[in-house]
Write a structure and sequence with these properties.
Layout lengths: L3 H32 L4 E4 L5 H10 L4 E4 L3 H8 L10 H10 L3 E4 L2 H6 L3 E4 L13 H13 L5 E4 L7 H14 L8 E4 L9 H8 L2 E5 L2 H11 L7 E3 L3 H32 L3 H8 L22 H12 L4 H22 L11 E5 L14 H11 L4 E5 L15 E4 L2 H5 L4 E4 L11 H4 L3 E4 L14 E3 L2 E2 L1
Parallel strand pairs: 1-2, 1-4, 2-3, 4-5, 5-6, 7-8, 9-10, 9-12, 10-11, 12-13, 13-14
Antiparallel strand pairs: 6-7, 14-15
Length: 468
C-alpha cells in the first residue's frame, strides 16, 4: 500500500521539477531561437505568413516556410514572394544566403523540425464566412510532428472559440500530448496593413498574445517580444484574443457605414460631404471615416460576419453591426446608379464603361472581395456593351473571364480610350492624377473622392458625397 504522505511528496517534487524545467525553457528561449536550435515554422506564405516569416528572419531566427502552392514554394526557394510586400523578398534572400531560411513541402516534417509552429493559412470563404478546412489540415499535420515543449500559434482572424474548440482537440488527438502540460497553445492575431506589413509587426503595433493557460501565455509573451518592438498586450483568455481582433474590423466597418450614410445624406442635401467632413474632423473627438464605393479585402467585410454568426448562436442582437454590413454591401449598386446619371440619356446598353481599380483598395494587388466584382455584376444586369478594367498592380485575374464583354487592360490610356464613362473604384495614386487632358471629355464618377476637381470639367464629373 502506497504511503499517502510519500505519494504527495513525489507529486510535489515532480511539480517542482516541471516548474524548474519550464523556467529553464523560458531563460533559454532567446539564445536557442537565435542560434537556430529552436526553429520557427510558418504554415502559409501568403498575405499574412510571408511578412511574419520575414519578421522572424530579420530578428535572426531560423525559419521554415511551408505552403500548399508549388509556385509559392518555388519562388520562396529563389528568394522571392508572390506578394508585393516591401521587405519580404529581401528577407528571404538574406535568410537563404545565411542558411536560416528553409522551404518545406512536407508539413509533418516541418513540425518535427521546429519548436514554434505558426498557423497562418487563410480562413476566408468565397461568401465571406469562415472556412476552416486549411486550419484543420495544418493542425493535423502539426499534431503528427508535435514534440514535448513545442509551441503552436494560430494567427488568422477567426470566430471566437476556434482555437479551443477546433485547433487544440486536433493537436491533442494527433500528438497524444496534453496542452499546457506537454505543449503550449497561443492565439496571436495578425495586425497588418498590406503594403507595410513588416513595419506594422516590428514597429507600429504591440502584439496581442493570449494563451490556453498561464504557461502558454508566459512563453508566448517571451517569444513574441523578440519581434514586437512596441511590446505585448497579454489577454486573459484565448477567446478574448480572438474577439479583440474582430472588434478592430467591426469598428472600421461600422464607421465606414456611418460615413457612407452621411455621404448619401449630403448628396440629397446638395452639399459637399468632403468639405463638411474636413471641418467636422477638426474637432478632436470626431473621426468620420472616408466613404467609398465598397468595402473589400479579407478583413473589414469579413470580421462582422464572424461576430454576427456567433451572436446568432448566443441569441444576441448585434443590429448596428448587421446594418452597417448591409449598408456597405449596398454601396456598389448605389454608386453605379449615381455614375450612370452622368451619361444619360445615352442608351446604357450601347455604353463602354471603364472601371479603375480591381484591387480592393489602392496600393495593393489583393483582389479578394473587391467591390469591383460587385460593380461588374450591377453593370451586367443592365447589359452594358463593354466593361473595361484597369489596375496598375493587377496584370491578370482568373475571375474576369467569368464575365461576358469584360476585359482587363494593362495600359491606362487604352482602357480609357473611347469609353463613355470612367468609374474610380480603388484609390491608387495613379488615378489621383487624372485631369482634362487624360480624360478627354469622358464622364468621370469618383467612387473614392480622390480626384482634384480643379483638374476636371465639372459638368462631366461627380463623386460619392459630392454630386455636381
Amino acid at each position: 500500500m502506497t504511503n499517502k504522505r510519500y505519494a504527495k511528496s513525489i507529486k510535489f517534487d515532480n511539480d517542482k521539477l516541471l516548474d524548474n524545467n519550464f523556467s529553464e525553457l523560458l531563460l533559454s528561449l532567446d539564445n536557442k531561437i537565435h542560434s537556430g536550435e529552436f526553429k520557427v515554422t510558418v504554415y502559409g506564405l501568403g498575405h499574412v505568413g510571408s511578412p511574419i516569416a520575414a519578421a522572424w528572419l530579420r530578428a535572426g531566427a531560423s525559419v521554415i516556410g511551408v505552403d500548399k502552392s508549388k509556385l509559392i514554394l518555388h519562388n520562396a526557394r529563389e528568394g522571392k514572394t508572390h506578394i508585393p510586400e516591401p521587405g519580404v523578398s529581401n528577407a528571404y534572400e538574406k535568410g537563404l544566403h545565411n542558411k536560416k531560411f528553409f522551404v518545406y513541402d512536407d508539413l509533418i516534417k516541418a513540425s518535427q523540425d521546429s519548436f514554434l509552429k505558426m498557423i497562418c493559412v487563410p480562413v476566408l470563404a468565397a461568401d465571406g464566412t469562415a472556412e476552416l478546412s486549411a486550419v484543420k489540415n495544418v493542425a493535423t499535420a502539426i499534431g503528427k510532428g508535435l514534440k514535448k515543449n513545442d509551441v503552436v500559434t494560430l494567427n488568422p482572424s477567426v470566430p471566437p472559440g476556434t482555437t479551443e474548440d477546433v485547433v487544440i482537440p486536433i493537436l491533442q488527438k494527433q500528438s497524444h500530448l496534453t496542452v499546457e502540460e506537454d505543449f503550449y497553445m497561443i492565439y496571436n492575431p495578425e495586425r497588418i496593413y498590406e503594403g507595410r506589413a513588416i513595419e506594422d509587426i516590428e514597429e507600429r503595433y504591440p502584439g496581442i498574445i493570449s494563451g490556453y493557460g498561464k504557461k502558454s501565455l508566459e512563453i508566448g509573451t517571451k517569444i513574441f517580444s523578440l519581434i514586437y518592438k512596441k511590446g505585448i498586450i497579454s489577454m486573459s483568455s484565448i477567446k478574448s484574443g480572438e474577439t479583440e481582433k474582430l472588434f478592430e474590423g467591426v469598428y472600421r466597418d461600422v464607421n465606414i457605414a456611418l460615413s457612407n450614410e452621411l455621404a448619401i445624406f449630403s448628396e440629397r442635401l446638395g452639399i459637399n460631404f468632403w468639405e463638411a467632413r474636413h471641418a467636422a474632423n477638426s474637432q478632436p473627438f470626431c473621426n468620420i471615416h472616408k466613404p467609398g464605393i465598397g468595402v473589400g479585402g479579407a478583413c473589414i467585410p469579413v470580421y462582422p460576419q464572424f461576430i454576427l454568426k456567433t451572436a446568432k448562436v448566443l441569441q444576441v442582437d448585434c443590429n448596428l453591426t448587421k446594418y452597417s454590413r448591409l449598408l456597405n454591401n449596398s454601396m456598389p449598386k448605389y454608386c453605379v446608379r449615381q455614375a450612370l446619371r452622368l451619361i444619360q440619356p445615352k442608351n446604357i446598353r450601347n455604353s463602354t464603361i471603364t472601371l479603375l481599380g480591381l484591387a480592393f483598395r489602392g496600393g495593393v494587388s489583393d483582389t479578394r472581395l473587391s467591390p469591383t466584382y460587385d460593380v461588374i455584376k450591377e453593370l451586367q444586369k443592365l447589359k452594358v456593351k463593354e466593361i473595361r478594367i484597369h489596375d496598375p498592380l493587377v496584370k491578370k485575374d482568373n475571375f474576369i473571364s467569368n464575365y461576358i464583354n469584360t476585359f482587363l487592360f494593362n495600359e491606362l490610356s487604352e482602357a480609357i480610350k473611347g469609353a463613355d464613362l470612367i468609374m474610380v473604384i480603388a484609390d491608387h495614386e495613379e488615378y489621383k492624377k487624372l485631369n482634362n487632358e487624360s480624360l478627354k471629355n469622358i464622364a468621370l464618377y469618383d467612387g473614392r473622392g480622390i480626384i482634384n476637381i480643379d483638374n476636371i470639367i465639372l459638368d462631366k464629373y461627380s463623386s460619392i458625397g459630392n454630386i455636381q
